[in-house]
Amino acid sequence: MGRIAVYPGSFDPITNGHVDIIARCLEIFDGVIVAIADNAQKKSLFTINERVKMAKLALQDMPDVVVESFSGLLVDYVKKTNATVILRGLRATSDFEYEFQMAHMNKNLNRKLDTLFMMTGKDYFFISSRTVKEVAGLGGDVNGLVPGIVAEYLEKKLKIRPSK
Ligand code: ADP
């Protein structure tokens, strides 16, 4: 068995920024588990099942990628996998403080686990799930920012929402 990384997040929804990180991680690791957090406290546009489905479809051409949902502590979930590393993406300095804190919190919870950061791709630094939802909600074009299947899901989801 090779080296596996767990890439955790909300993925509400998965964007091309996430896909780029996963593709580049596969150059370093033998496999990536995309672990989608089922966190009731965090309000999401898409249900956990929708988020998993979209990610699976978006990543179906990448063999060594598995998409799963998890709830509870990330370190507990990672322990149950064969992963050795937590993977996170970094955009501008604004990501740094939160990521720095989480990496150390997770290290504090499990000394054997390390978090590895991959810098955002130059074409993706401005993409976040939040801004993609905002733009799509206002009728803007998100093609090129998210996988095609996600653009379809966004359109469907935002169309059936009652307008004010
Ligand atoms: P969370 O809600 O846990 O921050 P996200 O789904 O927003 O989860 O993001 C998961 C990870 O991917 C985070 O480490 C985030 O910084 C990173 N990420 C999100 N968008 C991008 C992007 N465009 N480029 C690089 N990394 C990104």
Count of helix runs: 6
Sequence stretches where pLDDT stays below 50 over 5 or more residues: none
- Alpha-beta classification: alpha/beta
Rg over C-alpha atoms, rounded to the nearest angstrom? 16 Å
Under CATH, the topology can be stated as Rossmann fold
Structural notes for this entry:
The protein has 164 residues and is an alpha/beta fold. It is built from six helices and five strands. It has helices at 16-25, 48-58, 74-80, 93-109, 129-137, 148-159, and strands at residues 4-9, 31-37, 65-70, 85-90, 114-119. Strands 3-2-1-4-5 form a five-stranded parallel beta sheet, sandwiched between helices. The longest helix has 17 residues, at 93-109. 32% of the residues are buried. The mean pLDDT is 94. The chain binds adenosine-5'-diphosphate. Adenosine-5'-diphosphate binds at residues 9-11, 15, 17-18, 21, 88-89, 91, 95, 120, 124, 127-129.
